[in-house]
Amino acid sequence: xxxxxxxxxxxxxxxxxxxxxxxxxxxxxxxxxxxxxxxxxxxxxxxxxxxxxxxxxxxxxxxxxxxxxxxxxxxxxxxxxxxxxxxxxxxxxxxxxxxxxxxxxxxxxxxxxxxxxxxxxxxxxxxxxxxxxxxxxxxxxxxxxxxxxxxxxxxxxxxxxxxxxxxxxxxxxxxxxxxxxxxxxxxxxxxxxxxxxxxxxxxxxxxxxxxxxxxxxxxxxxxxxxxxxxxxxxxxxxxxxxxxxxxxxxxxxxxxxxxxxxxxxxxxxxxxxxxxxxxxxxxxxxxxxxxxxxxxxxxxxxxxxxxxxxxxxxxxxxxxxxxxxxxxxxxxxxxxxxxxxxxxxxxxxxxxxxxxxxxxxxxxxxxxxxxxxxxxxxxxxxxxxxxxxxxxxxxxxxxxxxxxxxxxxxxxxxxxxxxxxxxxx
Length: 425
Ligand code: NAD
Known about the structure:
By secondary structure, this protein is of the alpha/beta class.
């Protein structure tokens, strides 16, 4: 059986719709391996709750803009819904649904008691002043208020949002509740109950996954990183700290390359000062497409979905792809990469460090307690390496790719939770 969900715009294949098709394809494959019946497959293919809101934004010049916002809770069978909040002009309900679905499998795979959710607002945050951004964020939160809460659904940063955004979310929710509720979001500033180690957690996880997959000394291992935001910049830094040679990185402003290895700390300084990696003096310019096709040991996509497709997969020369981003590889590209012997460490494993430390932040908030950075890092490492070993063992045992194995484990755990709970009424 092939899983389909109704589309509100069937004629328009947006990148979001492509991401959802990829997520449904991966679910379908995992459900086949698990032998799930049609009813359960359909249940897992459809989000439990899906909300579209209109967010009015008062601009500085008095104009009123109205933008679309979304919050999707894909599954809550294993615990409260959990997932990031994305501000990006291209986001739509399909993309948010796909991202929520991947969150469900990711939380189940690494064994944390959450379901999957995601939120988004179709806007470019760079086009707003800070005051406009704050008003827009607070109004969006107000529109989705009935859905979120520390025991219901807990947002976190994603593309285009950061700890300041989370502070506004926490404040808006708390003002409405009448008391401070730090556990309603994760990825908050430390002063509001954030966790040590949350900022770099996804990138630290990418480093842990890369080193585990390499299985040899990282000294001199060449790396290219697509995306130099919250995940990509620190992933490049941590891989460089571990001894890898980061030879190329890109962001929306451009791509830079230095075969001898980039000084990542200086590049981060340059990007912070100038707004991007373009023009970094100690490197040559490169095209966005060429970065993905460089002859490197490790490619880390850490930007958006659907960047490795059947069109460029045959030209990808990286020996290993470690997915910092969610959904960067399409199913067609997956097949080509597998046939070419490229090892793909899938998103739901490779970038799970973010939600793992988000979970640790939430646990600390719920107990009004805090752990040291050493304790947080130890727990992160334990959970990630545990999941890594389960995925690689299952893949070897059943002859699956790492993505297929990760989905079989994640989907299997959610299916089991449904079966144990039964269906109400
Ligand atoms: P971000 O907004 O901080 O950074 C995104 C980066 O991608 C920016 O540097 C941007 O310039 C760059 N970019 C966008 N389009 C690009 C293109 N076509 N080519 C090259 N670079 C491009 O977002 P982030 O939080 O770093 O998220 C990046 C990815 O990681 C997303 O897929 C997100 O869902 C995933 N992720 C994030 C977290 C987290 O904790 N933030 C956790 C898990 C997964």
